Amino acid sequence: MPVTEAAAEVRIQPGQSIQDALDACAPGAVLRLAEGAYEGSLVIGRPDVALVGAGAGRTVIVPGPVAPTAVPPLHDAPAGVVSGITAHGVSGVRVEGLTVRGFSGAGVYAHTATDLRLVDVESVANKVWGLYVRESSKVEVLRCRAEGSQYGGIALAFCSAADALIADCEATANAFGVFVDNSSRARVVRNRSHGNAAGVLLLHQTYEGELPGGVADVLVADNDITGNTLASGGDDPDAPGFAGPPISGVGIGAIGVRRVAVVGNRLHGNAPGGPSVMGAALVLGSSAEWGGSDSVDNSFEWNTITGNTPFDVQLGTDPGNQRFRNNVVGSSQPEAIDGCGP
């Protein structure tokens, strides 16, 4: 396998070391992984590198030798967990066309990355997070799939100016399908989120020892959010959403958010499979009592929210500070909300 500092493209076969190629390649290199399984975690520490597989389900990264990394510890994870692919402090990284399966941390963990693109990446049964992007900017997550993680399937965390696009993805069997956690300037569009505890969760909440945050200037549009019935939260360390509040049956939860637009989404068949602090498919609430903020200046337009249990829409904050227009809604709490009706 020829690998030199000047190589523009490196082709790698199963049994060869991806990490050796990552360590040796020059900025601008494209590492092309043939179909097959590759054992071991990977660390991308050089800028402008592309890691391109033969397609999700065809090129698969599974646990094996652990590549050392100085990346900060993964949020909500026990010490010593291992993520499949880590990108730390780099710009211009692209990961495309592969599956990451069965790691104890995240499938992909990006920290302080800029110009990051995840395209056709599948995260399956990675214990804590699926595709987890933290303190990063200029992020694209396109046509990805995330299944079976304890917290977020696709997550932006503490990205204060994310300039992020999460589009045409699928999230299932996670506590939170798409999780915008203390992150702003993001677009969540044309995704399918089903079988989670919450399909899409936008949350401004303070955490001990964490950065200050907020959620503002986010667009959630044209998503299909259906059948989110998983139960999360509680004291079982192996359960979804461990140590968090009980959440289940939520389509879109927007808690402590500002200038968020929720437009043209379809929410149907979301019902709690266990206790839940939220009681509807669309929940708008305040996080001020947890150190967050009230939800103000948000827009909800042209959404179809029907056939959910126990309510289609639930407002836990002043509706006078929001805009509701042309939403098709079967039931709500309070019973009458201007701009929401049959």
Automatic annotation (TrEMBL):
TM regions (residue ranges): none
A Pfam match: Beta_helix
Swiss-Prot/TrEMBL keywords: Repeat
Domain Right handed beta helix, residue spans: 83-228
UniProt entry tagged with the keyword Repeat: yes
Matching SUPFAM superfamilies: Pectin lyase-like (SSF51126)
PANTHER family referenced in this protein's UniProt entry, alphabetically: F-BOX ONLY PROTEIN, F-BOX ONLY PROTEIN 10
Name of this chain's protein: Nitrous oxide reductase family maturation protein NosD
Organism: Saccharothrix xinjiangensis
High-level lineage: Bacteria, Bacillati, Actinomycetota, Actinomycetes, Pseudonocardiales
